[in-house]
Each structure stands twice: as structure tokens, then as C-alpha cells.
Amino acid sequence: MNHSYNNHRRSRHSHQHRPRQNLRRFPDRWDRYDNVGRDIEGTRFVPFKTPLDDSFFYGKDLPQELQFGVRSLINMARQANKEIGLVIDLTNTDRYYDKTEWADHGVKYIKLNCPGHEVDEREDLVEKFIDVVKEFVENPENGTKLIGVHCTHGLNRTGYLICRYLIDVENYTAADAISVFEFYRGHPMERPKYKKSLYDAELYKKGLLPRQESESTEEGAGDSSAHQTCTP
């Protein structure tokens, strides 16, 4: 009788403390893309997809190489004898990871809230991105430190803004900027309208096309969260 009762208690106890299924889902299609591209030759840029907090991986039995977080990127850079000095986060959310992790590793963090599918309509974000990059690159204290840039997949918003910098500042043609980015990221940009906008940006720079006024949203224009800084 006691033996049966004790077994019943153990069974109830183990059921009550069984680990819950991890309901934190990866961002849509996040696992289809390489974690990090190569640093783009002739620039400081290294594009990557958003790192995720450890809690996204609990109980999912994933290979270590698929568990990509802030520490993963820092360790990859160190193994390559390189150092990341600045990270520009283009996602429009704060739910993927704790931004203070960058400061823990001595990396400056800039948040540019960039809603999906409209970065090509936001000249205000292009200008902020270029200003942030210029300020970092022109500061001799930063030496040869790299600039990490990510959106959700490290591809479309990331690619657009890096290409705009190459076109607007480094005098690349749109075709060359797109080709270089896609080669070093390891994936093609997926939004045709972003590519068209890059070709338009080249024509504007050459004075062959008038550029429309920025169509920044009220949220982006008046919200201080559109540009956040976290320094080590």
C-alpha cells in the first residue's frame, strides 16, 4: 500500500516539474540564413542576422552552431583576430536580445528602429545611418574596429543601408554596391523595390533624378526610441 502510494506521489511530482516546452519561436525564416557574412572588403561593415537571447534556444536540442547570440558573434570575431567596435541594430523591436550585452563586451550599440518593407522610403533613416557610420569611422580612437549591422535576417534592411552608404559616401555604382554586399553576405537581397531605390539613389547622386522628400512616419520622426545609444 505504502509502496503504491509513494510511486503515485513520485509520478505526480515528476509530472508537475516536467520542463515546459519552449514557446519562444524564432523570427520567421531566421534559421534559413547564415549567421554572419564576411566583413566587406574595403569597408568596416560586417552584416549578420539578429542574435537571439539564450531563452530562444532552451529545450530545443539544436547544434551549437545554430545557437546564434551576442557572445557567438564576439567569439567569432576574436577567433578571426578582429574586433567589433560598433553594432547598428535595424530591427523594429527589442524582444530578440538584451542590448546591454554589447556594452558588456566593450561594443557601442546604436538602435535605429527601422520598420520592415519601408526603409527605401525613409531618407531620415538613411541620413542617420550614414552619420553614425561616418562618426565612428572618422574617430581615430576606433582604429580598424568593425561595424556590425543587422536587421532580422541581416539581408534586406541591412543590405539597403550598407549599399546606400557605399553609393552616397564611397561613390560605388548601385550595381557594384549590390554585388559586393550580396557576395560578402552570402545571400541575394530579396526585395526588388529596394534594388530599384538603390539605382535611383545613384541617379540622384549624379543629378539625373530628383529625389522625393523623405516619407518618414510620425512614429519615426517624433519618437526618441528611433535612435538609441548604449555605450560600453
Automatic annotation (TrEMBL):
Q: Where is the composition biased (Basic residues)?
A: 1-23
Q: MF terms per GO, please? A: phosphoprotein phosphatase activity; polynucleotide 5'-phosphatase activity
Please provide the record's keywords in A-Z order.
Hydrolase, Protein phosphatase
PANTHER family under this entry? DUAL-SPECIFICITY PHOSPHATASE 11 (RNA_RNP COMPLEX 1-INTERACTING), MRNA-CAPPING ENZYME
Span of domain Tyrosine specific protein phosphatases: 127-196
Species lineage, top-down? Eukaryota, Metazoa, Ecdysozoa, Nematoda, Chromadorea
Q: From which domain of life does this come?
A: Eukaryota
Keyword match Calcium: no
| Record domain Tyrosine-protein phosphatase: where | 57-207
Membrane spanning residue stretches = none
Keyword GTP-binding assigned: no
Species for this entry: Caenorhabditis bovis
Q: What is this protein called?
A: Tyrosine specific protein phosphatases domain-containing protein
Q: Where is this region: Disordered?
A: 1-24, 209-232
InterPro entries named in the record: Dual-sp_phosphatase_cat-dom, mRNA_Capping_Enz/RNA_Phosphat, Prot-tyrosine_phosphatase-like, Tyr_Pase_AS, Tyr_Pase_cat, Tyr_Pase_dom, TYR_PHOSPHATASE_DUAL_dom
